[in-house]
Specification:
By secondary structure, this protein is mainly alpha-helical. It has helices spanning 3-14, 27-75, 82-99, 103-129, 136-154, 194-215, 218-228, 230-235, 240-266, 276-289, 294-310, 314-330, 335-354; strands at residues 162-163, 166-167, 174-175, 180-184, 187-191, 268-269. It is built from 13 helices and six strands. α2 packs across α6 (194-215) and α4 runs antiparallel to α9 (240-266).
Length: 365
């Protein structure tokens, strides 16, 4: 196969995931993206199954961050309540899988966990967007929902707060949640340890690629237009209320999926997942990585959560908070867009010095 044919084949493979709404459409970006996946895939081989099992949670948090970056960065909806969908899916999975202690129960738990989180996001989104609530009030309402769930779940320690064999546990949390698995009856596949890591990685990569394709579709153009000027977008005949409702619901479903992966990682969940500190973390990841960059948010979530684990105690919050302030002051759009602008400026200056027109292709993040 000639080099021209190979180049054409790669361009066709990449084309669904590229467009004006995503940062990183260059060869350098895709080479870095592929290298990152390969390194993450080799992590269990290089550091062992235990390290992979422990690190699996970073990928789960990255998926939660992506769910926020999608609705905030591309549709302008700042939700402070992504952890509400995250926690609801986790508790739902626990309730179903503990009561049906077979592969059937775990599979049903996976499906119902994501479904309940999606329906809850749809219900909340319906009342907010069709009720005419906009901008900062959406942020406040979603935060309040998460805090209400935190308070409610915290008072469920008594024995009366049980659904079948599943005790909610109050601030002690729900214990005995089984590992991730799929199957029917006593026949199925269980994904524990390093396998959970690979499932989380597969889901994360598929989500990033799927969202890149979505935001570069006609629906994605409408999302960005709604973010930029909702009134003008309505004048062109778009139903911006439905666009925001659908976007918010998709984000809730992704947050729910991350909640199921989280509870099957630790086999435990408690009300702290709804607390204000947990609610703030996705906002911090997207702000630092770049809310318009899915890959930037993934990188920020992994690095910041790893940093928090190394700095146990209050110092972790101090350092992460300081990092957030510095990034907002220096790079208000986040690190990934900032690096893109810096590289683009460098290339433009180099082209000027060489006396050639500036390259039209976007640089990678």
């Amino acid at each position: 196969m000639s080099s021209e044919s190979k180049s054409s084949l790669l361009a066709r493979v990449r084309s669904p995931f590229e467009g004006p709404n995503t940062i990183g459409n260059s060869n350098a970006f895709w080479a870095s993206f592929t290298l990152g996946i390969v390194l993450l895939g080799l992590y269990p081989v290089l550091f062992g199954a235990y390290a992979a099992e422990s690190s699996s949670v970073y990928l789960v948090y990255a998926l939660l961050g992506v769910s926020l970056a999608f609705i905030w960065g591309f549709c302008g909806i700042l939700s402070f309540g992504q952890v509400a969908f995250f926690g609801i899916a986790g508790y739902t999975f626990g309730i179903v899988s503990i009561n049906i202690s077979t592969y059937t129960g775990v599979t049903l738990g996976l499906l119902t966990g994501v479904l309940v989180a999606t329906l809850f996001a749809a219900l909340l989104g319906y009342f907010m967007f069709y009720g005419g609530i906009r901008e900062v009030y959406v942020t406040i309402i979603t935060l309040v929902v998460a805090l209400v769930l935190h308070t409610f779940m915290g008072q469920t320690a008594g024995s009366e707060w049980a659904i079948g064999d599943a005790r909610l546990g109050g601030f002690n949390g729900m214990v005995g949640v089984p590992d991730l698995a799929v199957g029917f009856g006593t026949t199925g596949l269980e994904f524990a340890g390093a396998m959970h890591y690979y499932i989380a990685l597969l889901v994360l990569v598929a989500t990033v690629l799927g969202l890149r394709a979505l935001v570069n579709s006609q629906f994605g153009y409408a999302m960005v237009a709604t973010r930029e000027d909702e009134t003008r977008t309505e004048m062109f005949g778009y139903n911006t209320t439905f666009i925001k409702f659908a976007t918010f619901t998709i984000g809730g479903a992704l947050a729910g999926l991350s909640g199921v992966l989280f509870v099957t990682w630790g086999n435990y969940i408690d009300p702290s997942e709804f607390a204000i500190t947990a609610a703030a973390m996705p906002v911090i990841w997207a702000s630092i990585g770049g809310r318009e960059s899915l890959v930037g948010t993934v990188a920020a979530a992994i690095v910041i959560q790893w940093l928090q684990l190394q700095l146990i105690g209050e110092w972790a919050l101090v350092i992460v908070g300081s990092l957030l302030i510095v990034v907002i002051l220096v790079l208000p759009n986040g690190i990934a867009p900032g690096v893109r602008d810096l590289v683009a400026s460098f290339q433009e200056n180099r082209d000027k010095d060489a006396g050639t027109p500036a390259a039209a292709e976007e640089v990678s993040d």
